Structures are given as C-alpha cells and as structure tokens.
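Hey team,

Filing this mostly as a record. A colleague (T.K.) asked me to run one chain through the structure pipeline before their review meeting, and I want the input and output archived in the tracker in case anyone asks later how it was produced. No errors, nothing strange. Just documentation.

Input sequence:
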Amino acid sequence: MEFIYSSAAAARLNENLLGGKASNLLWLTANDYPVPAWWIVPANVVAALLCSDETLKQRLAHLSALPVDTPLAQIEMLAAPLRTRIEQLVLPDELAEVLASLDAEPFWAVRSSCSDEDSGSASFAGQMDSFLFQRGQQQLGHALRRVIASAWSSRAIAYRLQKRMPLSGIRCAVIVQQMVAGEVSGVLFTAHPVSGSRRTMLISAAWGTGEGVVSGQCETDEFSVPLHGDEITHHIGHKTTAIVFDQQSGSGTTEIALDDEQADAASLTTQQLLALRDTGARIAQQKRCPQDIEWTFRDNQLYLLQTRPITHLPKESIDPADALICDNANIQESYCGITTPLTFSFARAGYATVYEQTLRLVGCSAKESNARKPITDNMLSLVRGRIYYNIQNWYRALLLLPLFNMNKSDMEAMMGLEDPVDIVQDKKLSLREKIVGAPAMLRMAVRVQYAQLTLAPRIRQFLKRYEQAQAQVDRDNLHTKSPYELIRLLKYLDREVLERWTAPIINDFYVARYNGKVARVLKKFWPEESARISAELLTDDTVLISTEPTRKLLAMSQYARARPALMEKILHDSGAHLLPRLKTFDPDFYQQCIDYINLYGDRTAGELKLESMTLRQDPAWLFTVLRNYLNSGSTTTKAKGNAQAAGQIFNYLLEQGGKSTLARFKRHLKTLRKAIRNRETMRFTRTRLFALYRDIYLQLGQQLALEGVIASQRDIFWLTREEIYQAQEGTAIQTCLGPLIEQRRAEYESYREQEEPAHHFFITQTLFQQQSCRYPYAEKRVTTDEAELKGSGCYPGKVQAKVRVVFSPENADDLSGKILCTVRTDPGWAPLFPGLSGLIVERGSMLSHSAIVAREMGIPAIVGVPKVTQRLQDGETIVMDGTSGSIARLFKPMEPAHD
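Output structure:
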C-alpha cells in the first residue's frame, strides 16, 4: 500500500480516495494553474489507520446511528472521546518516513479532503480543521492526526446531520501542501454572492494569509469586478490586523496589528484584480459552474490554494422591463382564491384561443399569429395557486392595434387596474414607416369596423352555436361513455364553441371602447364626480340576464312565505335530503327548485373554476339562500334607473357642450349599455359552457376512478387539460397519476398556510425561485440616523424579529425565530444557524464561513456592522435587510441599568 502520493502520482487515484478538495486541486494542477506543490494521504490509508483500533471502530459505529435532531451537546459527548482516540493513533512507519522526508521544504499546510467536501451541494466551509506553517515529522504527523479527527468534530457532524448526509462511511483524505506565506490573500466568488449576478465577481482580500478572511477574523477589502469591462467597485475596509506566520513559536499563525497607513491602503492593485478576474473566469468556464476560489499573492505571483463549486446563490436582480408583472384586477372575480391545475390550464388555453381569434379577426396572417404565440399563450399566470393577469402581455397584445395609448387607458379602466404599468410603450413610427404600414392599418381598421357592424348577427350565431353544442352533450347519459369518448366530447366543445368566440371578443372591445368614450366626457365636464355619474347613467330599466337567478329565487321565497308549512320546512330542515323530501311535501315548489337548477344551477360562486361545486352536484346552497330571504323578509327585485338624474345630466351637457356633444354622448351611452347587456348574456352562456366542460371532466374522473387510474372522481382536477388530452393522443409523459396528484394536492394545500400574494407584484427570473409576491410600491420605513445601523448585506431577505446578542456559542439559548447578533463567528457557530430569522456579525466579510453557511441555509445575514453588539440590546425588536445591509430599530433603546 502506498501511504502518500505526489500531485503527479495522485492522477492514479479516483475521487473517493482523493476527496473533494484534493480532486479540485488535481484538476487545477492538470490544467496548469499556479498551485503550490502538494501531496495526498488517500482515504483508504486513513480508513486502514482508523480500522487498526477496535475501540475506535466501535465508537465510529455508535456515532453513525445518531438521529438528525441530536442536540449539539450530545454530539460533543460522543465525538470528543473519539477525536482524542484518533489524535493518539500511531502512524505507520512508512507514512512517518515520508513525512520526515518533506522537511526539505520550509513549511507545509495540512488540510482535510473528505469525499463529500467542497462538492456542489455541501461546501463544509470551515467545518474541518487546517494547520498552517507546519514542518518536521512531529508537527506534520500531529497535524495529520488532528485533521483526521476534525472530520468528526461536533460542528462537522452537526453539519452532516443538518444536510441529511450519512455519518457512516465518512471517507477522509489529508492534503499536505507547500505553504506560501502570502502577502495578501482572500477569496474570489466568480458569481456575486449578494446580488446573485453571474456576470459580476466578488473578491474579498486581507493582508497576510487567507485564514483571516475565511474565518472572519480580519477586516477585508471588497471588490466587485465585472466579468467584462474594467469598472471595478472598491470598498476599502479599515484593516487593523493580519494573520501571519508566528515567528515566535516557529510554526502556525498569529494575529498582528497593522499601522494606519497599511490599514487603510487597498490590498490589491487593479492589475492583480484583473488577473484574479481572468483566472476565475477561465476556471468557471472550464468547470461550467460558478466557483469559490481561495488564493494568495507572494511577490506579485498569484497562487491558487483551492477551488470549489459555489453551493448557494440568491436570485439575481433583473431589469424591471424583464420582470413578469402580475395583477389580479378583475380576474379575481372569476378565479378567486386558490384554484386547481385543471382550471388554470383550461383558463389559460381559453384566453390563448380567444386572442388568437382576435389576431385573425384583425387580419393577421398565420405567420404573424404564430410569431405572437409567446404572448397569446401566456395572458395568465399562476402564482401560489392563484390566477393573475400577466399584465405585460396584455399591453403587448394592444400594440397590434392603432391608438395604443387610448386602447391602453380603456383596457385599464375596464379591467379595474389600480396600478397601470408603463413599461410597454407604443412604437414611435417614422413618416416612412407610417406610409409603408398605412395599407395594413387601413385593412385592419376596415375589418374591425366590419366586425362591429356585424356584431348583432354574430351574437345570435354564437348563442345558436352554443345551443347546438349543448344538444350534443347528453348530460344524463355521460356515464355511458368511455374515457376516450369523453375526451373527444371535450375537443368537440373546443372546436365548435371555444374556438369560435369572435362575438364576445368584439363585444368586449365595444365595452372597453365606449366605456372609455363615455368616461372621457364625464371626466371633462364632471372631473370630481365622473365615477358616480357613470354609475347612475349605466343604470336603466333593462333586466340583465345576470339578475334573473336572483329574481327567480325571490319569487320562490314569496311562494314559500305564502305557505307557512313550506316556509317552516325550509327554515328548519337543513338536512342533505331536503330537496327529495319536498317532492311529496310540496310538488309544485319541488318543480320550481328543479327548474331553477336546470336553468341557473351552474351560476354559483367560483362558477368558472371547474372544481367548484354547483347546485347540480349539491343543491344545499339553494336552500341557504332561500332561508336568508325568508328570514330577512326582503322582496326587492330591481333598482330602477334614475331618469330624473339622467335628464339633469343631459341638460347640463347640452348647456356646456352643445347639441352635437350631447347627441354623440347619448349615442355612445346607448351603445355602451347595449354592449354591457350583450356581455352579460354571453357571459352567462360562458358559464353554461364551462358547466358542460365540468360535467364531462367529472364523468371522466369517475370513469378513471372506476378503473383505479385515480383514487376518486374529483382527483381529475389535479391534472392539467394538456395532460388529459395527451393521454388520449399517446404523448403523456407520466401515466402513474396517484403520486403526481398527491404531490400537487399537498403543494396547493401549503399555499393556504403561506402569506397571500398582493394584488399587484413582480415575478423576477422564474417561479421556481424565491418570490416575495409583495406589493412593490408600499412606503418604506424611514428612520433617523441614530436608529439605523449599516453593514454589508450577505444574503437577501427582510426580517423583523427580536435580537439575541450573544458573545459565546455556549450562552446561545432561545434562538429560534430570532436574529443572532455577535462580535464574530467561527465555524463552531454554524450549528446554531438553523431556526434563526437572521444573522448580524460585527466583524467578518461577505465571504467568511459564517456568511457562506448562512447563504446555504437561506438565512438573511449582515456582517461588518461597527460596534453592533454594543448598540443593540438583547431582546429588542429590529428590522434587518440582508440585501442593503441596513438595520432599523423599532423603538428607542433603553439606557442600560446601572447599579
């Protein structure tokens, strides 16, 4: 057995024997990067050494059975004797001889290299010990044993448990690397760990060795360096100390004080920064992932000490123009609260086909329509189970039409947008572009005008087409159809009704256009009261179909009130079988109930949500409403329009605007009222159409449940429309539906426990990434200078919580949900981090181990806050912002008590 390998010979070893850190060193060496000479004691040699001691083997086996939630104190009770035993092991003679032969070099660094260390998922930042400036057989042997022992330190074991990594079979190799007494050292992140930018690097540097940087023991300079260009952002710290070779003891390191001139001088030159940038860029490019690189300069020569993948990065900020802007505006009326995947996918497909038809209506070619599919296919967004408008795409769709600004204003008014967005702007055309585009715009105008002139027959044809389609759906006999036939029936409705939706499209355009025309006149002549006047004018004596169900229910309540026994029955019989009991109790009233359900049974709360229970599935809501009417005694059926008020408005408009203004206003108002009536009629037809879809989907769910494909009928709602169609078309990518449905059900249930998204918010990057979903324009808290502290943000997140000011990890109790504040942290503090709301460190850098571990755990963190432990009091409540590095105090701090 070979006990130690040179860097050249290490190429014969596999990664399990090398460990993560040595594997990365081998890669750097093989690719001709400037790496100090190094040797490796492979993991099999270390394993053989550990197995040579039976007591040690037993203790390792006992330790490997620790549960995930083992307290740190209990871990230390088991780990401490084990480490002591390891440190007392006798090294094989062959290994000791090789270590003795290394004495020819001045000094060596001894570091761990576990098989899972410096991996893409776990950095083990500072969890194992390293020993610098070692030489001679005795020092190197002692350091080697202590490095091995540190693999079973309480903090390393706790880190493994927190990461749910097995404790059995820990494989540890040991690196012995030539020591470079660096004049300036630090860490390079090839992607920015705070902003998340993959095109900006962060270099943290301090005088002396890198130990002062990674441990957070020394103040640092921070340099943000772009991947391309030379606009470097400098943050020069006041560096009072450095970690250097301990000349007095002849080995190891010590902390020394720096004079004022060196303390305030930049630790790196521009040339050195660019050299680091270029080297890091090459490594990241070859590795195909962002890297965390430790480095040092000696005599202006760059040396790389290690590289490893960055294990965690926050979401990168992007230009607001690239954000997805969600607004629920009036869509919350149709899709309120959390909905299901089937409803969203159905609604999304519906909006897509409607807007594709709109493009064809205005004369777009198939090529032009396909070019706009990224817009038309994504008019809606689904966030935490709730449906929102993808409002940017609505504006982009309007760009196709002339008069963008007017149409935009009209659309915003119709949708009830409280926060209009101006990112999408109308294109400014040159005279030549206007001339070239004039024929196409003229053709479009003619087509739109023709569509408006033929609106009435289009509406009649639309309603007729629905009735014909409904006649093809035998609701009473859907149970006799196979799943294949039911899906064909769904596609028939798509083809015959949903994909022939031009009448509602034109009418909605009418509503928006003429509502805008009326509103502009009212705002001109009644700027302070236009909304009130508009409401009065839109109230007329016409009965809208949307009021018919209410009128019918009121009539039914009057019928029941005239029959005391029936009224008593409805008021006090709340059983599930009230409806069938009415068949013998009052056959006439029973028939009224059946007629109502047949006519309006699909009109219910959440009627466009396919998963909603309608009166066809459960008539209980019908009797709930009737009881309310019977208890209230209300019989009002309709509010009449105020003709006298309308007359006064018209007279004023005649006086102020003249006959032509009044005539035009009346014509526009009449058109608007008619368009609103037509819209309500067609929306009711839409409700009935969706009900047909609902019945077919429910029956499809029943059929699949009978065959055991899904557990129950209503599980169908956890699938998407596309998944259902793909199952028939032979393109489904998943056919084992049970686990998929349960996973989705659990995810959507968790949304109920989360903070509800705001009505208007930005989605940056992707929905997979962390999103606040908060209203972006809320006023920010303003604090006085004395009440606000400032440091360097290490991980984003805004937290309000109580502070625990702690100076020693042994005294760190009651931390759950609190913000930990301390002078500095070393890797021993890491097991305290889970459960924290935030972390504030008086000293350290954004790349210290505490910051790295905080980022891995997603804990908002701030470092480098001067005298924060003296200024904050234990138990006070603060707001910390891990992005900006600001700390706001919510109340005036009390003066400390004096004896």
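Quick notes for T.K.: DSSP finds 31 helices and 25 strands in the chain. Confidence is low (pLDDT under 50) at residues 637-641, 779-784, 893-899.
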